[in-house]
């Protein structure tokens, strides 16, 4: 008999609603909407306040600001996965004559290119896009502030360049590519570059009085790939599920996992905060969060994901400042994760196994240090340190009979099973390290050799 725990418990949903109610009241925002995604679907959503002449719901649009950058990053990684670009390619190779063509695509994705944070001229978020008709108007006379690859410096112009790259290689406007390659496959029918009713109007709230001022909703023009989009909790919930699990119609699970890994020089605070390929990263209470914040005049938004917990929380509000939507979004994830911990998938035996792979499993030793090698589904392997903290990594099988590290110290490194001329298993070679079946096995080619007299008591050969 299998139990079903797809829906959240009443106590959990009340705690979630209480959290956003406090945020809307104390943050003094006209309206606020939120949702939680678990198991690939939205399991809770709610609205608070008044927007679009009523209580906002799943279909009410809000502007999501820099969450747009994640969509742009997805388009760029699709180009990479198709073999049209490499992440280490200089921008000049694909988009010439920008004046900053030596920076790489990976550096632009992770805000490590050293470009200025903002465009020159009037405050671009509150001025018409017509004021910036070309990339020269976005980059200005001094686009580079830091050496590329040395400093994490958030850059809106950097994502404008990535949007221009997409347009150049696809031969069509950025928004048309986004619609065809991401929004339509993920059925995000209420996400786009312009608002469609019902949508929440943007407001600024006076800091010392309960009065409001309407904010302009400008078309950002060429800077749209950095912050133009409008969306809903229903649509962002679908996008959150995609960022946790992948979707073969857009990006596979390995690529979205790559987006969630640190790719830049860590922001202040070390790995407690960082940036992946289009995703902000941080740690809180032992959990790793990925996602993005967003803000434009009149709007705040945040989407945070805990891939390990398989939970995402998202919050949007129609106010320039006030509620700490980033903190609220993370709180929603933790409320669910702590009250209703993830139930693991049921254990099932492998349907088929190669005896040669099964032979690799069991204890191995790096010098005297014990490890265990386990077989994973899909011919993958997991190397686990058995003596306290150690270099644990998972490996993906390659077509040439080797394995490539997926995480940890051995990320990207190659694991080989080395056999003797008679076919028997000799040792493992992992990034030049030799792993043997016995500690310092004298029959294996351990670098530096193994003393011929073998293991001995401490006083067997006193120092000379």
From TrEMBL:
Residues 353-437 form the DUF7586 domain. Keywords: Hydrolase. InterPro entries: AmpC-like, Beta-lactam-related, Beta-lactam/transpept-like, DUF7586. Residues 441-464 are annotated as: Disordered. One of its GO terms (molecular function) is hydrolase activity. Residues 450-464 have a biased composition (Basic and acidic residues). Residues 23-334 form the Beta-lactamase-related domain. Pfam families: Beta-lactamase, DUF7586. This is Serine hydrolase. It comes from Streptomyces xinghaiensis. The lineage of its organism: Bacteria, Bacillati, Actinomycetota, Actinomycetes, Kitasatosporales.
């Amino acid at each position: 008999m299998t139990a079903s725990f797809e829906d959240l418990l009443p106590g959990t949903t009340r705690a979630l609603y209480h959290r956003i109610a406090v945020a809307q009241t104390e943050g003094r925002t006209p309206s606020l909407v939120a949702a939680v995604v678990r198991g690939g679907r939205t399991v809770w959503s709610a609205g608070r306040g008044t927007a679009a002449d009523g209580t906002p719901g799943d279909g009410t649009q809000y502007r999501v600001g820099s969450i747009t950058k994640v969509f742009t990053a997805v388009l760029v990684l699709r180009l990479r996965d198709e073999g049209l670009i490499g992440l280490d390619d200089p921008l000049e190779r694909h988009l010439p004559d920008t004046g900053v063509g030596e920076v790489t695509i990976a550096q632009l994705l992770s805000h490590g290119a050293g470009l200025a944070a903002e465009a020159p001229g009037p405050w671009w978020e509150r001025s018409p896009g017509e004021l910036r008709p070309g990339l020269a108007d976005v980059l200005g006379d001094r686009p580079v502030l830091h050496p590329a690859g040395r400093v994490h410096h958030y850059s809106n112009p950097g994502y404008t360049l990535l949007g221009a790259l997409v347009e150049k290689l696809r031969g069509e406007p950025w928004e048309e590519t986004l619609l065809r390659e991401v929004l339509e496959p993920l059925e995000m029918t209420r996400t786009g570059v312009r608002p469609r009713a019902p949508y929440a109007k943007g407001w600024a709230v006076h800091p010392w009085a309960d009065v409001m001022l309407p904010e302009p909703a400008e078309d950002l023009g060429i800077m749209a790939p950095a912050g133009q989009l409008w969306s809903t909790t229903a649509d962002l919930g679908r996008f959150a599920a995609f960022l946790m699990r992948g979707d073969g119609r857009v990006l596979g699970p390995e690529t979205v996992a790559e987006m969630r890994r640190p790719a830049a020089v860590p922001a202040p605070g070390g790995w407690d905060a960082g940036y992946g390929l289009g995703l902000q990263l941080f740690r809180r209470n032992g959990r790793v969060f990925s996602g993005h914040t967003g803000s434009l005049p009149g709007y705040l938004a945040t989407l945070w994901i805990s891939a390990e917990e398989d939970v995402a929380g998202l919050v949007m509000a129609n106010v320039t400042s006030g509620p700490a939507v980033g903190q609220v979004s993370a709180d929603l994830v933790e409320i669910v994760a702590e009250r209703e911990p993830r139930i693991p998938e049921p254990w099932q035996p492998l349907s088929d196994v190669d005896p040669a792979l099964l032979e690799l499993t069991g204890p191995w030793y790096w010098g005297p240090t014990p490890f265990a090698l386990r077989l994973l589904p899909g011919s993958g392997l997991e190397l686990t340190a058995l003596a306290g903290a150690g270099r644990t990594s998972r490996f993906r099988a390659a077509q040439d009979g080797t394995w490539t590290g997926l995480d940890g110290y051995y990320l990207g490194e190659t694991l080989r099973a080395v056999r003797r001329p008679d076919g028997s298993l000799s040792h493992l070679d992992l990034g030049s390290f030799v792993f043997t079946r016995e500690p310092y096995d004298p029959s294996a080619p351990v670098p530096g050799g193994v003393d011929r007299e073998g293991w001995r008591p401490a006083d067997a050969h006193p120092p000379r």
